Amino acid sequence: MLSSVFFFSHSTSMLQNQPHRHYGITSPISLAPPKDIDYIHTQKLVEAMESFGVFEDEEELNHRLVVLCKLNNLVKEWIFELGESKNLPPSVVENVGGRIFTFGSYRLGVHTKGADIDALCVAPRHVERSDFFHSFFEKLKHQEEIKNLRAVEDAYVPVVKFEFDGIEIDLVFARLPVQTVSDNLDLRDDSRLRSLDIRCIRSLNGCRVTDEILHLVPNKENFQLTLRAIKLWAKRRGIYSNMLGFLGGVSWAMLVARTCQLHPNALASTLVNKFFLIFSKWEWPNPVLLKQPEENNLNLPVWDPRVNPSDRYHVMPIITPAYPQQNSTYNVSTSTRAVVVEELKHGLAVTNEILQGKSDWPKLFEQPNFFQKYKHYIVLTASTYTEEHHLEWVGLVESKIRVLVGNLERNEFINIAHVNPQSFPGNQEYCKQSRYVSMWFLGIIFRKLESAESTKIDLTYDIQSFTDAVYRQANNINMLKEGMKIETAYVKRKHLHYFLPAGTLQKRKKQSMLNISQNATGLRCKRASSNESLNSSRDDNSRTSYNSSSLSMISKLDTSTAEMERNATIWRTNGANSREKMTHVAVSPVSKGISIPVIGSKMEAAVAIRTSGPPSDCTIPTVIGHNAVSQLRTRFVQGHNELSGTQITTSKSAAPKRPHSPASKECSKRSKDREKLIGQDSAFKEDGHPEDVKRRSTENVDLGGKNKLLASIETSRSQRLCSEELPDSSSPVPTNGIRIIKRSIRLTLNQ
């Protein structure tokens, strides 16, 4: 097998490749050579990783080399033809060169089966960026082996994406101020950055960082095998996503590289254990550095909290080794850091058992059961009418989810907002009018109340500012199309089956994981009888049918399709009136609804599904164009046990409630121990007249005061600044008359 060959082909040379120089910013922790048992543990680690497809066979590796060679020839041919079309002297045209460089996981030697290739096209000075996105794009179009060609010219790092003979490639572009680009060009030279366009500097950064990491590790083979294991572990545990505020590939690579620097002679099995040991105890926000930052006179912005105030609020800085040094984890928040640290502690406990012979490596790669970890969830739904629009819409919504996480964790009543990186196909019965639906789930831990018996929690602004950011961005880039919608819902753990098929939840309950010890800085929540693992892979059947009778018990929390269509139309309209408008909206009262009895830890709560009623006299003044929500004032009626005189009863609802304690016989009568969820929607028309809107579901939920909640995260998180590199709101708020959809989620938190 390939992995066995991989291991044994290098095991004999590992001791011979002892480091002869100092690596890193400190001296090593240990220079101890590996023992015989370390070789055995490493071989078992390789065998455990094989089943996850982390190794490519020789044929697949050769295929990638052939594809890259063809792409490199295309680049050289294009640059040559472009030189001729621009009337360069023949002697110059013959030697202009051009080259493809790789970076990312492929360059590091840790790519998996079917993984894409990150590549950089380096061209001489006579080639403009516009040439790359036009003439080279057209050249790629005419290649029979190239499919799914698309350009993202307005991205932070502009890129051309395509599939070349079955291999996905992301190609970025950099233009150097030189007449020729030779095949032996060294991009690690800082002088290459002089007088470059900022987009070219960003494009070069990927290659420069990757090459620098490889240059700073004492043993590349040990580094690569360790990184493969850590990347697999991070993906399986749901903490591999730079976009969603966790760590991306380059961040994990730098952490592994630092571990290798501190244990230069250790094998992969030992390095994996030391990785968890070092970073589960790391005193964040102290930065992780692979080398001392070097002074440079190029005057490019670098990460430096002494100079840049925004850098002081980065909670988990991991600094890239190549100039200009940047924090690769600027998206990490206090919530995502807490989740990562807890997983690191879990990894340490498991690897300690493995090295002691008490467990095996597959246990390290077990998946957690995200849907049993929390009692409270927020469900985010993105939907469209067409598949083409859905791919665009889901990409935009997913890129902004970290904004929602940041909004929620800055709420004074929330300790943790944990997003599951895995998206799930939507409930088709639940979203009948939208054919393509994707859902994300956020686990919520509320802060324990110290004194007050009950506290009102309003998540309206947190949700609304997120949806505003998404729609604003879609409007700015002319993406917003008919049928593109965002919907948000609050749901308790016991009601997740309304959003996910029973098979999805049941499959995850069959896999158990170690019940690890909790810590003051990690997540603390009351588990079920045991912590269970989650198979977060997407269900193959993306159109799973659902029980429509059960679905009738849960109503949508957002506006109707027709309203969203009108909203999208107005978002796309460039109104001439740039003045901010004051609008009043009538909120319809709650009418009768169906209630679903729920077994709570203290009382029997009810989920009320409300129908629309006539407009009330309640109005909401709102300034159009500002990312703010006025305090909503509305009346509400709790759900009744009947709708139009018809009582709803099910076997579940008829089941007796579990008593809170032997001495408590009348828990269901304690109406003060409950949590009320009030869902409200109101719509804004350009002329300011009210219109009927669908109402949200109301759920009385009970926190019960039994969960062990996380200790307070530092209050400075509320002061955390948005990243300057990837701004959440890159463009001004439109001031034309835009019809805004308001969504309100309010809770009453009880002890």
From TrEMBL:
Transmembrane segments: none annotated. One of its GO terms (cellular component) is nucleus. This is polynucleotide adenylyltransferase. Residues 24-217 form the Poly(A) polymerase nucleotidyltransferase domain. Residues 666-699 have a biased composition (Basic and acidic residues). One of its GO terms (molecular function) is poly(A) RNA polymerase activity. Keywords: ATP-binding, Magnesium, Manganese, Metal-binding, mRNA processing, Nucleotide-binding, Nucleus, RNA-binding, Transferase. It comes from Phasianus colchicus. Residues 369-431, 432-507 form the Poly(A) polymerase RNA-binding domain. Its cofactor is Mn(2+); Mg(2+). It is found in: Nucleus.
